[in-house]
């Protein structure tokens, strides 16, 4: 593209943003309807647009920017590693990758890790592992029990492991091998195991993120884990959104007394760099061997350096405790100021908070942007707040002050 065309395209984008209109770049496949803003830089929990206006980030790139923006520790770790080596093949030893695997094992109580580039890839690894485990145990057509309203990614297998019919539309035929039950319903899971002797694993999210911020009670997770163990099936937890101190523990399963057989991570692990992980323990440890799975970019030195810096900061700053303190404070403020018709429930755990309204509310995203606040709406009626874990009480209060009038005005309209 010539410089004249680039200049013209940039001018058109700037005009559309200024007018608050949707703009689709001519060289990008329009898979996202982008909001009329472009950010130039960030600091902490704040982002700044091309006009210099600042926005309080209560979205964190959808639970990705664990340390906020331009955290000096993360910047230093990434810059230093980029100056050494960014990428080498997994055909060689990668010490910084080994350090990350050791750190994750220590923090989780699990044993081994495979590194990928995203949450969807981590879940693909888990699905493959479950099928291999099933074949090892004589199950010719292995099945995986999954939950209604689940979200595990947008690749073909993860798309059909999830329960969102809207994003599945147009991509059939379905990928077979999944048995769907209501989220967290132990009796339904047991019935599915009884009816399907080929089940090799149970896959679920400790808190359904895209499905509407529905937490699974720790006691229920304990029951599901006991059931899985008694039937010799793997318990696989998708902690792509809940992991890395988001819910007030380093991993959400740690609110219970269990350790899963398989756990997937991504989002907050890299603090903004693309990394996913599939951790295994117990009966899942030796299912994969040389050649059974792989990734060209997975676990390269750059992203592993970032993840190590994130986890070190999470531990040193005790960001799990901060997530509990600030999250409880935000929920209390919201409940006191949003006890009005139209607000169905405020729920969540740590800094993963959902505000359920009695009507579709996607318009809230744009209205909040106009007010200087970034957030998202999921499952049509759930306002999702997943800010950086570095957010202070005072900054969170600013977010509530910006958000409450937006919701009240929306409900009155």
Automatic annotation (TrEMBL):
Pfam families: Aminotran_3. Pathway: Amino-acid biosynthesis; L-arginine biosynthesis; N(2)-acetyl-L-ornithine from L-glutamate: step 4/4. The keyword Iron does not apply. N(2)-acetyl-L-ornithine binds at residues 154, 295. PROSITE patterns: AA_TRANSFER_CLASS_3 (PS00600). Pyridoxal 5'-phosphate binds at residues 119-120, 151, 238-241, 296. One of its GO terms (cellular component) is cytoplasm. Binds 1 pyridoxal phosphate per subunit. One of its GO terms (biological process) is L-arginine biosynthetic process. The modification N6-(pyridoxal phosphate)lysine is found at residue 267. May also have succinyldiaminopimelate aminotransferase activity, thus carrying out the corresponding step in lysine biosynthesis. This is Acetylornithine aminotransferase. It comes from Enterovirga aerilata.
């Amino acid at each position: 593209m010539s410089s004249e065309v680039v200049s013209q395209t940039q001018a058109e984008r700037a005009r559309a943003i200024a007018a608050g209109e949707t703009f689709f770049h001519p060289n990008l496949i329009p898979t996202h309807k982008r909001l009329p803003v472009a950010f130039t830089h960030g600091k902490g929990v704040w982002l700044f647009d091309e006009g210099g206006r600042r926005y309080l980030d209560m979205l964190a790139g959808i639970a990705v920017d664990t340390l906020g923006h331009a955290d000096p520790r993360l910047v230093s770790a990434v810059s230093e590693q980029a100056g050494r080596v960014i990428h080498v093949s997994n055909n060689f030893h990668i010490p910084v990758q080994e350090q990350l695997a050791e750190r994750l094992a220590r923090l989780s109580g699990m044993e081994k890790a495979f590194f990928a580039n995203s949450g969807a890839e981590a879940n693909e690894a888990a699905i493959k592992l479950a099928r291999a485990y099933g074949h090892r145990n004589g199950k010719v057509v292995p099945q995986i029990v999954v939950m209604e309203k689940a979200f595990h990614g947008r690749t073909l297998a993860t798309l059909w492991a999830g329960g969102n019919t809207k994003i599945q539309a147009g991509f059939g035929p379905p990928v077979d091998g999944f048995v769907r039950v209501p989220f967290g319903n132990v009796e339904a899971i047991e019935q599915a195991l009884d009816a399907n002797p080929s089940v090799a694993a149970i896959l679920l999210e400790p808190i359904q993120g895209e499905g509407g911020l529905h937490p699974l009670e720790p006691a229920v997770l304990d029951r599901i884990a006991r059931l899985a163990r008694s039937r010799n099936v793997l318990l696989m937890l998708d902690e792509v959104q809940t992991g890395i101190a988001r819910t007030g523990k380093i991993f959400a399963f740690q609110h219970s007394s269990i350790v899963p057989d398989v756990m997937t991570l991504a989002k907050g692990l890299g603090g903004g760099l693309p990394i996913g992980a599939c951790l295994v323990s117990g009966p899942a440890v030796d299912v994969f061997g040389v050649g059974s799975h792989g990734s060209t970019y997975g676990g390269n030195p750059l992203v592993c350096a970032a993840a190590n810096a994130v986890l070190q900061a999470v531990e040193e700053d005790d960001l799990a405790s901060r997530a509990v303190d600030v999250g409880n404070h935000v929920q209390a403020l919201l409940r006191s100021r949003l006890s009005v018709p139209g607000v169905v429930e405020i729920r969540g755990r740590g800094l993963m908070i959902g505000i359920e309204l009695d009507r579709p509310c996607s318009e809230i995203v744009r209205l909040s942007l106009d007010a200087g606040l970034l957030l998202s709406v999921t499952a049509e009626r759930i306002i999702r707040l997943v800010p950086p874990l570095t957010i202070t009480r005072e900054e969170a209060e600013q977010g509530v002050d910006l958000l409450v009038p937006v919701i009240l005005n929306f409900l009155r309209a």
